[in-house]
Amino acid sequence: MFPRPIEKASPAWQYTYQGLLPLALIMWLLPLLAVAMFSMKPDADFTSGNYWTLPSYFAGFENYSTVFGTWQRTLDGCADNAWPLAFNNDAFCIFRFGWDYDGSDMVRYMFNSIMITIPTVIGVVALSSMTGFALGIYKFRSNLLIFFMFVAGNFVPFQILMVPVRDLTLDMGLYNTKTGLVLFHIAFQTGFATLFMRNFIRALPFELVEAARVEGIAEWRIYWFVVLPLLKPALAAMAVLIFTFIWNDFFWAVVLTQGAESQPVTAGITSFNAQYRAAYHLMSAGSIVAALPPVMMFFLMQKHFIAGLTLGAVK
Amino acid sequence: MSDVSGRITPRAQRGWYKRNEIALTPWLFLLPGVLFFAVYVVFPILQSFNISFYKWDGLGEAEYIGLKNYTDLMGDRNFEISLWNNLRWLILYLLAIPAGLMIALFLNQTVTGIRLYKSLFFFPFVISQVVVGLVFSWFYLPDSGLLDSFLQWLGFDGLNVLGNPNYATYGIIAAGLWPQTAYCMILYLTGLNAVDPEQVEAARLDGAKGWRMLWYVIIPQLKPATFIAFVVTIIGALRSFDLISIMTNGGPFGSTRVLSFYMFEKALSEYGFRMGYGAAIAVVLFLIMLLFIAYFLWSMYREERGR
């Protein structure tokens, strides 16, 4: 092990190390801790210039409830609700159950982010498990070429796609809709996801497929019953990664959407910024809310997340 | 499975699909993915090349003007600034690699609670760049920001980092290095985990330690991690857009523009819809990226052949 394990060092150095750890962590996360503290300070602290003192009183609840707005049960607001989950005229609806909602647009942005991220993850998992299967199991002449097309496409700068993709989305009548954004994200992330799935499938024991073929099992059944069950850990790792990438996307949200009815939270927070200019307590509460879902995803699925990110870092 | 009939039917009598199943299946499985990817990624690249030869506002008729967009770029002072800033991003962003390695070495121990420390150190990477940008723009606030408060406490003058054309780009790069270092750290932590302990012990018996050990024994074994760190850092540097847009919006006086941001500004903002000119900038950025992409693919290709 390198560096030399700390247990073999002198006790003095061991204690120093134990003390250094939290100190280094606080330094490292200082900007974030500052924002967390901001979100608990009352507005008055900022107007009086006390940015970096402890909160004069704990205002966390009022700040976060301003961000989340007020909610009231309603029945008629969701009468014409076509989708299981929707925002209808400022009412949040689950089937016919609804809550009248009054407050900042932050909640709508969060809702949009969820409705963009989840379908994208499902779409990418579906497409890339298939492309990965095709490229990982079968040997045909253009295999490597198609694989490299996916890999290369995944690295291109977004700007080279921007004008045509925006045009295409406009032509399909999907500009400023969540669907337009979802379709593009699925297509683009399939590049990365194919790289991921194909390499994982390559590492599976090929004898399984051969044994299934000897049994005369149809190829699509091999996909569904033999390969797919083995892909579960890889799909989980990929799903959390894609979730984070899409949740955090800003560029495409700005290019393909505008306004609270379809913008995700990353783009929305900038309008929120304009709405609450220099209201640091609300902005920081909003930022923390916006950052929370990927952070929770990371902590819940840490093993998968890191396995996904470090794919290929070890031979 | 009950597909017994397939085995007893003579080969010639089976359906055409059944006879060619192994050759056809991959194409059927590839079809949806390749179709999506072609429509949204491959064709748009070609279209962008095409648009870059036109003068087009995105709505009306496009007018073919040949290479004029490119010759205009030559004389465009803002393009030049963007290009230089891209170079700054590329070079300085690479600092994330040694910084990530250092933190990984610091954390590669087995004391109690170290797992939690590792995840918390990784934290900045999980947060969206938009939030990172907001956080850092408060950190840099003139007078009231944490940085200025600290400088004033030390007795220095305050530093309006994002308001000063000479520092603003470096301020943004520093903000970008924060999550990028976290990413490189996690790559190296994984790499360090796989370092062969016998080689380390053998080197120790030969008297190697400290820097020499790191340089001659550890870093060569971390090569795959370094390669990936290099790839993601280069891509990240050339993709920088979110932070610039949030922290300075290209300013002050356009001094923090990079190609990706300048392209967006030209093609889609209050400065007018110059799609053709924007596409030309995108093509330049794409060609720069292509150098790296070609190198990455070549490395991958060699590895594929080596299997």
Automatic annotation (TrEMBL), chain A:
The keyword Transport applies. Pfam families: BPD_transp_1. Keywords: Cell inner membrane, Cell membrane, Membrane, Transmembrane, Transmembrane helix, Transport. The chain crosses the membrane at residues 20-40, 109-137, 144-162, 182-201, 222-247, 278-300. It is a multi-pass membrane protein. One of its GO terms (biological process) is transmembrane transport. It is found in: Cell inner membrane; Cell membrane. One of its GO terms (cellular component) is plasma membrane. Residues 110-301 form the ABC transmembrane type-1 domain. CDD domains: TM_PBP2. It comes from the Bacteria. Signal peptide: none annotated. Belongs to the binding-protein-dependent transport system permease family. The complex is composed of two ATP-binding proteins (UgpC), two transmembrane proteins (UgpA and UgpE) and a solute-binding protein (UgpB). Part of the ABC transporter complex UgpBAEC involved in sn-glycerol-3-phosphate (G3P) import. Probably responsible for the translocation of the substrate across the membrane. This is sn-glycerol-3-phosphate transport system permease protein UgpE. It comes from Flavimaricola marinus. The lineage of its organism: Bacteria, Pseudomonadati, Pseudomonadota, Alphaproteobacteria, Rhodobacterales.
TrEMBL record, chain B:
GO terms for cellular component: plasma membrane. The keyword Magnesium does not apply. It is a multi-pass membrane protein. Keywords: Cell membrane, Membrane, Transmembrane, Transmembrane helix, Transport. One of its GO terms (biological process) is transmembrane transport. Residues 82-296 form the ABC transmembrane type-1 domain. The chain crosses the membrane at residues 21-46, 87-108, 120-141, 167-192, 213-238, 277-298. Its main location: membrane. It is found in: Cell membrane. It comes from the Bacteria. The keyword Transmembrane applies. Pfam families: BPD_transp_1. Belongs to the binding-protein-dependent transport system permease family. PANTHER family: ABC TRANSPORTER PERMEASE PROTEIN, INNER MEMBRANE ABC TRANSPORTER PERMEASE PROTEIN YCJO. This is L-arabinose transport system permease protein AraP. It comes from Flavimaricola marinus. The gene is araP_1.
